[in-house]
What does this fold into?
Amino acid sequence: MENTDKSITKNLILGLQHLLAMYSGDILVPLLVGGALHFSTQQMTYLVSMDIFMCGIATLLQLKRTPWTGIAMPVVLGCAVEYVAPLQNIGNNFGWSYMYGGIIAAGIFIMLISGPFAKLRRFFPPVVTGSLITLIGFTLIPVAFQNLGGGNASAKSFGAPVNLVLGFTTALIIIVINIWGRGFFKQISILVGILAGTILAIVLGTVGFAPVSAANWFQLPIPFYFGIPKFEWSSIATMILAALTCMIESTGVYYALADVTGQKLSTDDMKRGYRSEGLAAILGGIFNTFPYSTFSQNVGIVQLSGIKKLRPVYYSAGLLLVLGLIPKFGAIATLIPSSVLGGAMLVMFGMVGAQGIKMLAAIEMNNKNLLIMAVSIGLGLGVTTQPALFQFLPAELQTILGNGMVVGSFTAVILNIFLNNTSIKNQVEEEQ
It folds into this structure.
């Protein structure tokens, strides 16, 4: 009984680590969208709480393998930032109902194309997947640094000494634990770093407890809380473009997790993974939250902790459900300063990028493969750091071309087809 209790405690702590790693990135979306659409305090409270709750539902759909859904790998789902601009645009120009109609339509679209999209895996040999995973990590480093500086790059306090101290201290603690830590303590290095950084922030007087006192004790999910979804073709098309962007990013995360966990990823696995995200988006539209996709920062946790089992992520999903139903508890997690999360993200995203480099190191370094890596990674990082490059193009094209993951992925796939066309044929033969 004692060993069982210890196992539950360990898995609960590991699950909390996964939750804290994704929490900031996820609640950022409802805050940005709700703020742009001028939601009231009550509406914003519901939006944040139900978004957290639906993250738990979406994660469970992906964890549990069924004949139709579930990739069954240690992954947490949340709303991707790629959806922010399209949702803001639809909500402001057409209204909330059309925004949720677009989310439901995008979810149906994802489920319908999951089969054909999964078959594209033959176009993702190691040179492509390695470049893609490298991009996942390195294109997110600017996000880590933005958080490390305070979260809002336009704020006067951005980069303030206290933010730098909190961020780099958190990163240093995580690094030190991974070098000299042992056993379970080493496995929860991210969690320890975040907690230590938050305690330091409290000591320095930078944390306010007002969000906790203002939050409600209980909130049930209510279908169509903001209104019945309505459908309009341009809103649907915009959401589908954003969904395709996230599917490409999810593909890279699936491959990264498969590499970290040592699992062989089949076409059926990919189908179930995409279908889970599609179903989660449909539920998000019904409960007036968001579409959901795989969070890449949690790959870094799996790599750092060495824990590749599903059980801790089940606990994380359970915690998300509880936090969503009890907003006051969920508000406690909002006390974590952005700079502390930025320090943790710096290590996590760097580890994802390093995983991609590890994959690339195993391939033949001939001129063709080097060209694929150089151009795809270069373009992906370039548009990530300078998204204004496409500011004069239509908004729909900006959604696609402004995403470094999409640009880098398409470039790697297309260059591989032209430069290594025989390798694709060999790849298909090996799979058969």
